[in-house]
Every structure is written in C-alpha cells, then in structure tokens.
Amino acid sequence: MASSDATERFAASASELGIEVAVRSYPEGTRTAIDAAAAVGCDVDQIVKSLVLMADDQPVLVLCSGANRVDLAKVGAEFGGEVRMANADEVRAATGFAIGGAPPFGHPAPLPTLVDPHLLTFDEVWAAAGRPDSVFPLTPGDLMAGSGARPADIAT
Ligand code: 5CA
Description:
This protein has a single domain (5-151), classed as Alpha-Beta Complex (YbaK protein). 28% of the residues lie in helices and 23% in strands. It has five helices and eight strands. Strands 1, 2, 3, 4, 5, 6, 7 and 8 form an eight-stranded mixed sheet that branches. 5'-O-(N-(L-cysteinyl)-sulfamoyl)adenosine (5CA) binds at residues 30-33, 36, 47-51, 85, 87-88, 99-100, 102, 127-128, 132, 135.
C-alpha cells in the first residue's frame, strides 16, 4: 500500500468524486505504461495513459490505452484547435502531479477529457495514482464517472 503526500492527495481527491481508490506502489516503478503493466502483471492495453495536451494553449486530457498512440490531429479535430503535447510544467499545473504520476481525475480543476474506447472493453484498468511508482485499479465505469470523459477515436 502506498503512503506518500502525492498518493494520499490523489486518494483524497478521488474520494471527493465518490471514488475510493486502492493505491498500489511498486519499487520497480510504473513510470511508463510498459513499466506499469509489468509491475501489475496485466496487459499493457489495460494501462490508462493520462496525457495532457494543449489545445490552443488550454490543457485537455486524453485517456489512452497503453497499447495505443494518440493522433494529435484527431484530438485537434475533437477540440477544434491546434494541439500539442504539454510540457512538464504544464502537466503539473493542469493536474497537480508530475509526468508519470498524473492521474486521470482529481485535478485542481476538471479538464475537458476524451477516452480511448479500447479502454472501455476491459473489466478492470489501471491508472497512475499521483507518483511514477504508484497505480490503482478501476473499472471503466469509474474512469468515465471520475473524469467525465467522452469516448472518441483518438488513436493512430
Ligand atoms: N505511470 C504511467 C502509466 S499509468 C504513466 O503515467 N504513463 S503516461 O503515459 O500517462 O505518462 C507518461 C507520458 O508523459 C508519456 O507517454 C509522454 O507522453 C509524457 N512525457 C514523458 N516525458 C515527457 C516530457 N519530458 N515532456 C512532456 N511529456 C512527457
């Protein structure tokens, strides 16, 4: 079980959204989707990548399966603007957490969010829990409920 300021802060934010999370920490790290899948022992498809993008310099979030890559042009078409990856400072400002630990919800302010429909095909998925060595399991239903995400075809 994890116990750090960042994971506890995330768990408290999730609880405010009505979602109780069971954070798991792994000394080998969960910084990338591949790392996380290896640590958890699940398929990389079941890892939620919580990617902050800037759409006309406003932060948006894309929840993408670890098996897929985000097509920036498709995200741009969804939001109707120019889209680029956020930098490290922008990720922290938008989510309250560092790259590799940014969770799919529980941010300082809700972000416009799209979800890769592939994630909705599993009974359970895993997402970052505030730190690059911590993740938590959740249902796609809770992923949608916590993030307010809209499914969209955003993978390459
Ligand atoms: N903990 C894992 C699995 S849950 C995780 O957070 N993966 S992630 O994909 O959601 O977050 C890492 C992402 O951050 C990478 O896919 C990449 O898009 C982005 N990233 C990594 N390094 C940088 C960097 N230096 N600048 C901007 N973005 C970065």
